[in-house]
Amino acid sequence: MNASAPPVSLLNGQDAGVDALRVLAQVNYGHFTSLQVRGGAVQGLDLHLERLRQGNAELFDAALDAAAIRAWMRQAAQAGGGDCSMRVTLFARAFDPRQPLREVDVDVLVAAWAPLIPVIKPLRLQTRPFVRAVPQLKHVGTFPLFHHRRQAVRDGYDDALFIDGQAQVSEGSFWNIGFWDGARVVWPDAPALRGTTERLLQQGLVAAGVGQLIRPVAVAELAGFQAAFAANANGIQPIASIDGVEYPEGGQGAVLALLEEAGRRAAWEPL
Question: What is the CATH number of the domain that holds 236?
C-alpha cells in the first residue's frame, strides 16, 4: 500500500460506516491484534488468531470464525496491494453495558494502511508505575498507555517503561522488552501483554540454540545488563537508556543480530 493511499476499513467484509466506528469509540469494549502484512502473508498468523479466540471467549463468550476473519484480512490486504499495516478489532455494536451477559453478534473491523518502516533509533525510556488491566488480553482500553507515553515524552524521554508495585519491569507502552546479560536473553515475567513478536522471537532463539531466561527483573538490576531492546509488530528497536542507566551503542550489536536472525526464522503464512 502506497503511503499516500487512503486507509482501508472493512466491517464484516463491507466498507465500514461512521456509525460502527462511533459505537466502538463510545463503548470502548473489544479486543484486537496488530500485524504487518507483506506480499499477502503474515508471520505468526496462528498466534494472532489464537489471541483473537481468547479475546472473544473472555469478552463475549463467543467462538471465533477464523476462516471469515482470514478472508476479510486477505480482502483488506489485497486492496492495499499486498503490503500493509493491519489491525483486526473485534467488538459488538449490539453490546449493552447495562446487560453485559446478553448474547451478541461479534463484529470484525479490519483496518489496513501503509506498511510501517522499522525505527532503529535507540529509545530513551522513563520508568512509570503502571500495570495494565486484564493484561492477558490485547483489549481496546488503551487510554493509560497513551497517557503514560505522553507523560514520558513531556519529561524528555521517547517512551514509557512500566514497572509494577514491587519495582519489577513488565513491558513498554506498546511493546515488550528484553535484556542481554552477555550470554542469554532475559525476559521479564511480571504481568504484561505477551506479544506475538515476543513469542516468535522466543521460538526463533530456541531454534538457534540461544539461551533465554524468563524471570523477575528488578529496576535495581538494570545496570547489570549489557543491552536492552523493545519488540512489537513493527520490529526490534534498541534501547539507549532507562532512567539513568545507559546501554552503550557498541554493546547492542551482538544481541540485535541474534534477534534479527531469530525473527527471520518465523515463516510468512499466506492470508
Answer: 3.20.10.10
For residue 87, tell me if it sits in a domain: yes
Quick check: helix, strand or coil at residue 74? helix
Range of the domain at 59: 8-113
Tell me: do 135 and 59 sit in the same domain: no
User: Are residues 162 and 88 both part of a single domain?
Assistant: no
- Domain end position, chosen among 86, 113, 140: 113
The rounded distance, in Å, linking the Cα atoms of 122 and 54 is 33
pLDDT at position 149 is: 98
Give the residue-averaged pLDDT of 142-157. 97
Is residue 57 scored above 80 in pLDDT? yes
Shared domain check, 233 and 210: yes
If you ran DSSP here, which 8-state letter would residue 102 be given? Answer: S
* Arithmetic mean of pLDDT, 75-88: 93
pTM: 0.93
Burial label for 48, CB within 10 Å (0-12, 13-18, 19+), is buried
pLDDT at 17 over 90: no
| Cβ neighbourhood burial of 223 (10 Å; 0-12, 13-18, 19+) | exposed
Looking at the chain, the whole-number percentage of residues with pLDDT higher than 90 is 85
Q: Are 146 and 40 in contact (CB under 8 A)?
A: no
Distance CA 266, CA 264 (A): 5
Residue with the bigger pLDDT between 19 and 108: it is 108
Residue 173's nearest CA partner among 187, 190, 165, 161 is 161
- H-run or E-run covering 160: strand 159-163
